[in-house]
TrEMBL record:
Domain ATP phosphoribosyltransferase catalytic: 63-215
UniProt name for this protein: ATP phosphoribosyltransferase
Keywords for the protein's UniProt record, in alphabetical order: Amino-acid biosynthesis, ATP-binding, Cytoplasm, Glycosyltransferase, Histidine biosynthesis, Nucleotide-binding, Transferase
Subcellular location(s) of the protein: Cytoplasm
GO biological process: L-histidine biosynthetic process
MF GO annotations: ATP binding; ATP phosphoribosyltransferase activity; magnesium ion binding
Pathway in which this enzyme or protein is active: Amino-acid biosynthesis; L-histidine biosynthesis; L-histidine from 5-phospho-alpha-D-ribose 1-diphosphate: step 1/9
Matching InterPro entries: ATP-PRT_HisG_long, ATP_PRibTrfase_cat, ATP_PRibTrfase_CS, ATP_PRibTrfase_HisG, HisG_C, N-reg_PII-like_a/b, N-reg_PII/ATP_PRibTrfase_C
Family note: Belongs to the ATP phosphoribosyltransferase family.
EC identifiers of the protein: 2.4.2.17
The reaction(s) this protein catalyses: 1-(5-phospho-beta-D-ribosyl)-ATP + diphosphate = 5-phospho-alpha-D-ribose 1-diphosphate + ATP
Length: 296
């Protein structure tokens, strides 16, 4: 694998943190860094940026190289996909799932072909950006002939239409790319999402732990919203059943009234139903807030 060194030297003794320089993970990673308070200024086109808030240097690298840098280089932390870790065969510590970059790595073939099972592609021509995972996967179906696996760095879906492959192994999220290329899924090799990884031999374990904890808080905060409402004494117990909170709801009596103000964390996806249920019960002044960050 060819990898370019960063364009200017990192600050000595800073923790090095590898960030995807572009692509599908980039925007979510930038949000995560902001949310976790890792402030930085990235001069135009430079692949290196020093954080102003922590002794951390960000190195912007292709997502596909990050597992290698973290596993074998001096890079302490990184963000990349589980698919890339599996393909790199390097040992890294997977610290946490980041809940974005979700997709699956799938064997695909032209819709108008007679292929319905991956065994029909064993020994044939497969194009992919994941040659190692692909070779291992097809081994189970091979009898005499080895599967011919060709690596391409992108636009894998074009390979069948251009006569280079009988099938491909590529990532599928919505399926738009696959359908546009006239392909369909024959089998799924693995599901994947973005993860925070660390170098098992890092000299910065304290700082790794700190950043990890901040990310845990931010990712948790993204999954919840805060709801507050007023409810009369007689209906309080029923309301608590609707919003039990993560541990328990916070309940405060309202001044001079037989009412309580309740606040609780609720799952983002449940908010609509919970508001309906509370309204039906007779709760008033129901307000929902986004959580910017939290520490559970
Ligand atoms: N469509 C997608 N939906 C969700 N996650 C994806 C998708 N495509 C790729 N990923 C995840 O992001 C990782 C990096 O892929 P990405 O396409 O961003 O890199 P790239 O191909 O180097 O960049 P680019 O496509 O801009 O050339 C993948 O290994 C996978 O984990
Ligand atoms: O199922 P979908 O939602 O269409 O997403 C899947 C596509 O996304 C990625 O490609 P990307 O856009 O990164 O281009 P690339 O193939 O050139 O890397 C991946 O390689 C698939 O082709
Ligand atoms: Mg891509």
């Amino acid at each position: 694998m060819s990898v370019n060194p960063p364009s200017s030297p990192p600050k000595q003794d800073n923790l090095l943190f590898a960030i995807p320089k572009k692509g599908r993970l980039y925007e979510s990673v930038v949000k995560l860094l902001n949310g976790a308070g890792l402030d930085y200024n990235r001069p135009n086109r430079l692949d290196i940026a020093h954080c102003s808030s922590l002794p951390v240097t960000l190195v912007f690298l292709p997502a596909s190289d990050i597992a290698k840098y973290v596993g074998e280089g001096n890079v302490d932390l990184g963000i990349t996909g589980q698919d890339i870790i599996a393909e790199s065969k390097t040992t890294v510590n997977e610290l946490m799932n980041l809940e974005f970059g979700r997709c699956k790595l799938a064997v695909q073939a032209p819709i108008d072909s007679a292929i319905t099972h991956p065994s029909q592609l064993a020994g044939k021509r497969i194009v992919t950006s994941f040659p190692d995972i692909t070779a291992n996967y097809f081994k189970q179906f091979e009898t005499d002939k080895l599967t011919q696996i060709k690596y391409v760095g992108g636009s894998v879906e074009a390979a069948c239409g251009l006569g280079l492959a009988d099938g491909i192994v590529d990532l599928v999220e919505t399926g738009t790319t696959m359908k546009a290329a006239g392909l369909e899924i024959i089998s799924t090799i693995m599901t994947t999402q973005a993860v925070l990884i660390s170098n098992p031999k890092t000299r910065h374990s304290k700082l790794v732990k700190k950043i990890h904890q901040r990310f845990v808080g931010f990712v948790l905060a993204q999954q919840y919203k805060m709801i507050t409402y007023n409810i009369c004494t007689e209906k309080l117990q029923q309301a608590i059943k609707i919003t039990p909170g993560r541990k328990a709801p916070t309940i405060n009596p309202l001044f001079n009234e037989a009412f309580f103000a309740v606040s609780a964390m609720v799952h983002r996806g449940d908010v609509g139903d919970i508001m309906d249920d509370l309204h039906e019960l007779g709760a008033t002044d129901i307000i929902v807030f986004d959580l910017e960050n939290c520490r559970a």
